[in-house]
Inverse folding.
């Protein structure tokens, strides 16, 4: 972040789009979902520092596998309880759920890989048998 961005308190949709390397359409979608609440000056959207932070959190949540509904829930909890105890406890629950789901996916992938390796060995063995007989 450059010095101008650090001192900036309002942002245009194109500012945020460039900073986070996402489309303005994505930002408008998050706004439609109630995750961002920019002020308006005519048709122009004016995003606050809070909107910028929320956008950063939305994108981080996406990378971690959180749904927009889960992200919205965390924002609502934070808005209701600025001490964020409830939000942090909910976040810990969501993290545990994600970790469990990912562990299950890893276990499933290991099983599929073992099955593929077995099938591969059977195919290679069958090819070898056909060469020897042929």
């Amino acid at each position: 972040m450059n010095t101008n961005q650090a001192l900036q308190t309002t942002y245009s949709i194109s500012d945020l789009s460039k900073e986070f390397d996402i489309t303005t359409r994505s930002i408008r979608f998050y706004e439609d979902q109630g995750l961002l609440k920019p002020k308006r000056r005519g048709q122009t959207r004016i995003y606050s520092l809070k909107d910028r932070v929320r956008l950063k959190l939305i994108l981080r949540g996406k990378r971690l596998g959180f749904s927009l509904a889960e992200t919205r829930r965390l924002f609502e909890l934070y808005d209701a309880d600025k001490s964020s105890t409830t939000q942090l406890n909910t976040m810990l629950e969501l993290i545990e759920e994600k970790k469990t789901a990912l562990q299950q996916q890893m276990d499933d992938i290991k099983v599929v890989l073992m099955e593929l390796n077995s099938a591969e060995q059977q195919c290679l063995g069958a090819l070898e048998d056909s060469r020897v007989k042929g």
